[in-house]
Amino acid sequence: YKPQEFAAAALGEDGLVYVGSSYKTFYALRARDGSQLWTRTLTGGVASEPLYLAKGLAGPTAMVVVGDDDGALTALDARTGAVRWTYRVRGSIRVQPTFAAGMLYFTSGEGRLYAVDAKTGAWKWQYEREVPENFTIRGGSGVLVQGGRAYAGFPDGYLAALNAATGEVVWTRQLSGDASRFTDVDSTPVLWKDTLYVSSYATGVYALDVKDGSTRWRYDLEGAGPVVLEPGTTPGSERVYVTAALLGIHCLDGQGRVLWRQSLGREGELTAPTLWGPYLLFSAASGGVYLVRSKTGELLQFFDPGQGVTGKVVAQGPWVFFLGNGAAFFAMTTG
Fold this sequence. Notes:
Blueprint: E1 10-11, E2 16-20, E3 25-30, E4 36-41, E5 51-53, E6 63-67, E7 72-77, E8 83-88, E9 98-100, E10 103-107, E11 112-117, E12 123-128, E13 144-146, E14 149-153, E15 158-163, E16 169-174, E17 190-192, E18 195-200, E19 204-209, E20 215-219, E21 224-230, E22 239-244, E23 248-253, E24 258-262, E25 274-276, E26 279-283, E27 289-293, E28 299-303, E29 314-316, E30 319-323, E31 329-333
C-alpha cells in the first residue's frame, strides 16, 4: 500500500499557512511552529491548493477558498474558519481557484469551468466539454484570467479561450493530436507577452498565439505535466519549465529549445516546479523534494520524508512547505 496526498498549502498574512488532506480536515496553522489556529471538517478529502484572498478583495476580512473531492468549493473566514459560503458541483475539484475582478474561476473533474461571485458564491456562468469515455489523467487545469479572457485546458485535449465576464467562446484549440487516450490538457496555461504556454499529456509543450491559439512552436514530450514560466528581460529570454513523470524536468527557452534536463529515473509523478529565488523546488511521488539551480538544473539538495511527496511544494521568503504522502506536513527554511 502506497498512500498519496495531493494537497498543497496556501500562505496567508500574519504568518499563517492553510492546508488540507485526504482526511477531510482543513487546517489553519502558525508557520513558525505548526500550532493550530483552527480546523474545519469538509465533506470530502482535499487534493487541491487553496486560494488565500486578503481583506477587501471579497469582503471586509480575509478569506481562504478550498475545493474538495466531494465537489464542494468552500469559502472560509481566514481568522476563524467560519464558513461564508459553499458552492457544489458534481465532479471533484483538484485545482486552485483563480480570482479576478470579484469572480472566482475553477475547473472540475466533470470537464466544466465555473465562474462564481467571490463574495457570495453565486453562479455566474459555466462552460462544459465532453469528458472522454476512456481513461484520463488524475488532476486538472487551473484557469488563467488575463485581458478579459479566461483560458483553461480540458480532459478531451482542448484548450479554450472564453470571455471572462460571460463565458462566451473566443476560440478553442485541440492539442492532443491523433492520441486516443490520455488526451488531457491538465497544465494551467501561463502567458508571457502575447504567447500562451501550455502542455498536453499526449503531445508535449505548446507555445500558442494568444489571439487565436495558433501554434508558434511545439516541444514533443511524452507525459508532459505542469508548466511554469520564468519571465525574461529581453524577447525570447523567458524560460519554460515542465515536468514529465518518466523523463524528468525540462527547461526550455522562449523558442522551444532545451537548455537543460534533469532526469530522476522512475521516481513517479512530478509536481509543478516552484521558483524560489535562483532555485527550483519540486517533488516526486516515489521520492521526495528536490532543489536544483534554475539556470543549470544542477541538483543541490534532496529531502526524503518517507513514502514520497505528491503534492506541490510552496515557498514564501525563507520558508518552504509541503505535505508528504504519509499525511505529515513539513515546514523547512534556509540554513
